[in-house]
Amino acid sequence: MNKRVEEVLNEQIIKEASSSHLYLSMASWAENEGYNGTAKFLYKHSDEERFHMLKLVKFINERGGIAKIPAIEKPPISFDSMIKIFSSLLEHEITVTESINNVVDVCLQEKDYTTHNFIQWYVSEQLEEEALARTIMDKLKLIGNDKGGLYLFDRDMENAAITPETVGGEE
Ligand code: OFO
Q1: Residue 44 C-alpha to ligand 1 middle, in angstroms?
Q2: Which residues lie closer than 8 Å to 106 by C-beta, 6 or more apart?
């Protein structure tokens, strides 16, 4: 496997693992605050990011590279409010999109069209995740501090899907 491509894919493993860790911490905070619907959504989101990481690990190894399982930085424990959670989730996803775009760039520079093809799945995934995070943020901005609104929001989040076709470990 092309060494530069292997390097950026391994960097992407760190990003996906950090996302999974961060969303897990958010889920745990939401659960302790009584936002059970949001907690369920975030636990699922965390699993989804782990799946993204796993997909990269397997791809690198199958192509003759070496996947490196990284140490992960400790995420924050407290998030203050629902709006804080989802604004940092959106911010985080935007940085992940930038790093996926960087992988695309390197694939093209190195003429690695197989990996370029593989990484397109992540390109569409990021598009969906960013759009979903923006929709959630719009809702939360409308709700503001209204407790009844937040209650209904949380109830709706229980059934909100991230990307249903991938949750559950399909490869
Ligand atoms: Fe949403 O980060 Fe994975 O790709």
Answers
A1: 13
A2: 4, 5, 8, 112
What's the pLDDT at 168?
39
Ligand 1 atom 4, closest CA: 122
pLDDT for residue 158 is more than 70: yes
Q: Note whether residue 19 is domain-resident.
A: yes
Whole-angstrom CA distances from 161 to 21, 37, 117, 129, 156 are 19, 12, 26, 10, 10
Of 12, 45, 129, 167, the residue with max ligand 1 atoms within 8 A of its CB, to mutate for a pocket test, comes to 129
pLDDT band at 56 (very low <50, low <70, confident <90, very high): very high
**Residue 163 pLDDT more than 80?**
no
- CATH number for the domain including 81? 1.20.1260.10
Residue 17's pLDDT is what?
97
Helix (H) or strand (E) holding 122: helix 113-143
Assess if residue 170 is contained within a domain. Answer: no
Give distance in angstroms: CA of 146 to centre of ligand 1: 31
Cα(20) to centroid(ligand 1), Å: 9
Domain that holds residue 138: 3-165
41: pLDDT strictly greater than 60: yes
